[in-house]
Recover the amino acids of this structure.
């Protein structure tokens, strides 16, 4: 059941991040899920660096916010690689 929730939440987080980074038109649901899940790992790493207790094992508001931040960072990196700049 945890994987299903991770896919659903990852899709929502990835979709919101793609809206913020203005990439929604070029991404489908599969890539939104991938960005959301990888963004969760990046957000967890950033959270441990700055001292926010966001972990991947618990469902919490700081965890969701750090996942969103990680997804936005991931899309910024993708924008830099693809277009040579961040939108």
């Amino acid at each position: 059941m945890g994987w299903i929730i991770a896919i659903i939440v990852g899709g929502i987080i990835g979709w919101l991040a793609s809206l913020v980074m203005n990439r929604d038109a070029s991404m489908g649901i599969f890539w939104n899920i991938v960005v959301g899940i990888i963004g969760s790992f990046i957000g967890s790493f950033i959270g441990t660096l700055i001292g926010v207790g966001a972990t991947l094992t618990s469902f919490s508001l700081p965890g969701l916010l750090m996942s969103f931040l990680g997804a936005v960072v991931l899309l910024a990196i993708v924008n830099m690689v693809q277009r040579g700049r961040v939108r």
Summary: The helical segments are 2-20, 29-50, 61-83.
